Each structure stands twice: as C-alpha cells, then as structure tokens.
Amino acid sequence: MTVENLTSVLTSRKAAGDEPDWLAARRRTAVTQAKTAGLPGVRTEAWKFTNLTALKALNPVAASGGAAVARPAAFADLDAADIQLSNGELVHADAMPEGVDLVDLGDAGAAPDWVSVALGTVADGAQHPFTAINTGAFAGGVALRVRRGAMVDRPILLLVGTQAEEDMTASQPRVLVVVEEGAAADLVEVHSGTGAYLNNAVCEVVIGRGARLGHYKWQDESLEAFHIAMTAVTCADNAVYDSFALSTGSRLARNEIRATLAGRHIEYRVNGGYLATGDQHLDTATFIDHAEPDCASHELYKGVLAERARGVFQGKILVRPDAQKTDGYQMNRALLLSREAEINSKPELEIYADDVKCSHGATVGELEDDQLFYLMARGISRERARAILVAAYVDEAIDQIGREPVRDAFRTAASDWMHNHIVGAEG
Fold first, then answer.
1. 385 within domain boundaries
2. Angstrom distance (rounded) from CA 345 to CA 332
C-alpha cells in the first residue's frame, strides 16, 4: 500500500471537473503533504507502538457506492435522526432536527460558504499523513451545521458502514460539524462493516462561542478491518465539548483526537474506553492544546485487554505560556485479563505557564482475587463474577457521557461485549 494508491480516486474526480477551486487547492496541498511524509513507521515517535506493516502490505482499491447501514442492536431504541454513510458516501439521511443543516460532501461544488470556510482547515494533514490522504481522496461524506442559538434536543446518529468487496477496500469518509454561537447538539458516530477493509475517517469539529457539542463514538468495525481515524476540534470562548469514544472492533485501530482550546472558559471533556480480545490492537492518541487561559480539560480512558490483545494510549496536554489558570486532568487505566495481553501507556504534560493545576497518570492491573472470591462465595460463577467486575470497571468511564439515553446505549454496547468475550473467557 502506498500514498499514491490511497489517493488514486483523485484522478476521476479531477477529470470530472466537478470541484470548486478552494477544494481542489486543499486537495493538492494534502496530496503533497502525504507524499512528503509517507506512511508512518515504528521510528515515527507518535506511531512507535503501532506497527503498520500488515496494512502497508495490502493494496486496497477505492470504495464506491454501498448499501444501507443498519443500526446496531445497542442503539435500536435511541430516539435520533439517522444519517448513513456507506463506503464513504452519503446514502440516506432522515429529516434533520430544526436548526440543523446537512450538506452532502459528494456534491462539494454546491457547498455553501460555511463549508468552504471550515472544511480542511481544522484537521492538519502536515501532522497526520492519514488525514492528508483523506483530504486528498475523500469522495463523499457529510457536513452538519447547528445554526446560531439552536437547542437541538434529539441526537443525530451518524452510521458509518464499510462493505468490502472481493478486493481489499479503502473507504475515506469525511465529516464536518459546525456548531455556531450559543447552539447545542449531540452527535453519535457508529463505525461498522463487513470483510477486510481500511476505514480512514476524518471528522472536523468547530464549536463557536458559548456553544456545546456532545460527541460520542463507537468503533465496532469488522475484526478483519483497519480503522484509522482523526477527530480534530477547535473551541471558542465558553464552549463545551463533551466526548466519549468506545473501541471494540477492528483488527488494528488508531483513534486520534486533537483539540485546540482557542478561547477562554472552555470545558473540554474527552473520555473513553477500549475493549479488546484475540489479537486485536487498539491505539488511542489524544492531544489537548491549551492555547488560552481559564480553561479546563478532563480525560479518563479505561481499557480491558483479554487473550493476546494489545492496547496503546498516548495522551498529551500542552499548556502554552499565556494559558494561565489552566486545569487539566488526564488518566489512563488498563485492566489485563491475560498474561499475554499488553498495554503501552504514554501520558505527557508539556507546561509553559506557572499558574496551572494539571495532573496525569496511568495504572495497569488485574482483577483482584478477593473481589472474585467475594462474588463466588455468593453463588456466582467465576466467569460471571469476572464479567460483573469488568463491567463495573468500564462503567466509570461510560458514566462520563453527558446525555442519559446515549449513555444507556453505550452501556448496552459494552455489556454485550462482556457477554460475548468475558463470560467463559480464560483467565
């Protein structure tokens, strides 16, 4: 697999002449960035714990078309407006709640000004080669705007599905979310698919003054799939970003979330969990740039690794010289259910201001024998006792989700994973 292969879809789009100048220019820049950087290897510091050799050996073809994307069982009862992206293209959208505008990025030539102003400006391809590849190659996706002052009570459920064909497929879905001043909304992403494929997803988020976005993601890809995702966020004064990401699927996944707190009095919460078994490799990378004073960030990730699974957590908080009164908290906790499971954790603080309150840490442990004994002494089987303790452990992170119906759906998703992979699993 090469950068040229992953951006091959550009040829047909350029020939069609259907793109505005602003997008064509951003694509050219992105392709140059991708070719200059190349695909990262283990000598690249940010990727040293995630070996992409298996992905590089593949020769995926660009995905096209696609079928309807069904809701997973855990989200079947969630009252939400659905959007379906299949193989990177918009295939269905319910009527959006009042105050929300939707644009099909497959028809970027007709995109309004708010799309052209933001698309491709938040996620930095120079820092992340797969982001550059997506910018150069995406054939579709969706842009959402929550208009100024709109209070959207009903969540938006973004179902991102990939259907592999006979050949290895590469899908490049692109999402842009703009929440204007004083507005509030909730967006839930669910990534799933069938077969062997690469889902290289990019989501850009712009949160205006006094606006709030609840942004919740479940990565439940095929166990033959590769999932590489970038979520890039920028926040203005008094903004609130409430995020949760749960990773349970894919053969190899890297979920990266980068944010710039570009205003004052921002509340930024980025929490999540990763649950892996078999030979899965799940990588989480976060970066929080405290660029202005008087902001708070909170980060809690809980991991559960069984059998030969491998987890990676890399989290960095940067506090710039002018960002006085910063309050930053970061914690990663991993639970190993097998002696063959492995976790690599790298929490970082880089602080250039002197009036701050920041802390970070990482813990790794096993289930405690006395807790198992306590439950087993009350007639609970060892397997069920393990599942109960693991569920309670993961719930601490799920409890951080700010919207109750969404929180319940994620708790069901995690519970289903426990039932399928923990009950009866070997210790």
1. no
2. 8
> Which tokens go with 102?
């939707």
Q: N- to C-terminal Cα distance for the chain?
A: 37
Model confidence, pTM: 0.93
Q: How many domains is the chain partitioned into structurally? A: 1
Q: What is the largest CA-CA distance in the chain?
A: 71
Any domain includes 296: yes
Question: Tokens standing for 259?
Answer: 């944010």
Task: Compute the Cα dihedral for 263, 230, 272, 104 and give only its sign.
Answer: positive
Range of the domain at 335: 3-367
User: What distance in Å separates the CA atoms of residue 318 and residue 258, rounded to the nearest whole number?
Assistant: 11
| Separation CA 4–CA 114 (nearest Å) | 30
How far apart CA 180 and CA 308 sit, in angstroms, is 45
CA distances from 390 to 180, 373, 394, 411 (A): 39, 15, 6, 12
- What per-residue string of b and e applies to 281-314 under the rule 16 or more CB within 10 Å gives b? bbbbbbbbbbbbbbbbbbbbbbbbbbbbbbbbbb
Tens of pLDDT, residue by residue over 335-376, are: 999 999 999 999 999 999 999 999 999 999 887 777 777 778
Please choose, from the candidates 313, 243, 315, the residue with its C-alpha nearest in 3D space to the C-alpha of residue 282: 313
